[in-house]
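Homework help board

Subject: predicted structure for assignment chain

Our instructor gave us this sequence and asked us to write out the predicted structure in token form, then describe one feature. I got the tokens but I'm not sure how to describe them. Can anyone check?
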Amino acid sequence: METIDTVSNTVTSSNLIADAVEAANGVIWGPIMLAFLIGAGLLFSISLKFVQFRKFGYMMKNTLLGIFSKQQHESDKSGVSPFQAVATAMAGTIGTGSIAGLATAIVSGGPGAIFWMWVSALLGMVTKFAEIVLSLKFREKNAKGEWVGGPMYYIKNGLGIKWLAVLFAIFGMCACLGTGNATQSNSIAVALESTMNVPSLVTGIVLTVIAASVILGGMRRIASVNEKMVPFMAVFFVICSVVALVINYKEIPDAFALIFREAFNFRSAAGGVAGYGVLTAMHYGFSRGVFSNEAGLGSAPIAHASSSTKDPVKQGLWGMFEVFFTTIIICTLSGLVVLTAGHWNTGEFDGAALSIASFNSIMPGVGGIGVTLATVFFALSTILGWAYYGEVCVGFLFGKHPKAVMIYRCIYVAVVFIGTISELDLIWSISEMMNGLMIIPNLIGIIGLFKVVKTAVAEHFDPLKKQ
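My token output:
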């Protein structure tokens, strides 16, 4: 009887936690947060004269088209190369948010969520640009002489509000364990088990060993691994998606029609396993959009601040590219595959399993294995990237305690294993909550310092106008 009572109490406690987290997300990701995100994006878009559109060609020239230039790969003792910083940031953004998160958004918010992800990305391009400019403007050097920065530093050094900076660092430290870690390892475990019948325990052990061998080596080892892995995994997933859509091309027009129709569906009709209307679509579109591209979250600027570059605007261009590529390109391709495959509203699949089932139904055998490999690479790179974010937050909070970062690394590695054997729904909900809590102090910081960004942009582009 005692055993039954213990199990019953455990289940009840778990349900209470899940209900509490869902209630918190309802508040955090409610209309106020949506207005906050949209407002910040509009503020910077208008004040910078829609730089994300006006300078789109300039952005592409200095990012994707200039990826092999010598300048992008130069580094010194104070920081990693600009491309290594970008690779680490993109390792965080091109994660399972593009596969599992996108699929979850469609199931929970309907196809219209994809439209609102696009909106969040177009506004988020300039928001993330601003974050990165500020992260380089107000960064500091740590005890090792290496650059460290991010929202906590520009809130402290720019706004002069240290308690708000501390809040961000606390939220960021916790979010790294969920958003950048447990959700990622969970998606790897689900993908490998559903496609290759690999037990979660085995995945957890192997993944933990791999993560530990890289993470315990610090930022330079993380950046070195991501520099090689990120370009490969991105190209691989794009090719898989394009091939799947070419095979299923007849369904693409209907998929786009469904996206636009459901984006403005004001009724609360049953769709898939959940009811959805325009507010629900917006909620999941923006929250999963932020999970995908991290615009407004304040995480990616931490990686960019470690760059040895001296030009904040040049590094900021990479931020705009990240959002464009991860959400407008990757998430759109992933979403179209899910919608054209037709499994999204059956209630049988969610998360990474839905994406795998969709690819597999279009390309039997090959598709499932392809997206499984993409999920593994995406998630692993994110685990590595967010490990650095967490340790910078820990360094900001406990800089006087030299062992604090190493203790956090060990905890982080342990959570990699825990994530592989945990329930998906609760992990995603907690991660969503932590993302929202990070956004609040970060947006206060960038809005309060928007004149600094405006001045930096003017100083960067004025010489071009004179030529």
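Reply (TA_rk): Your tokens look well-formed. For the description, you could write something like this. The chain has a mean pLDDT of 82. That's the kind of observation they're looking for.
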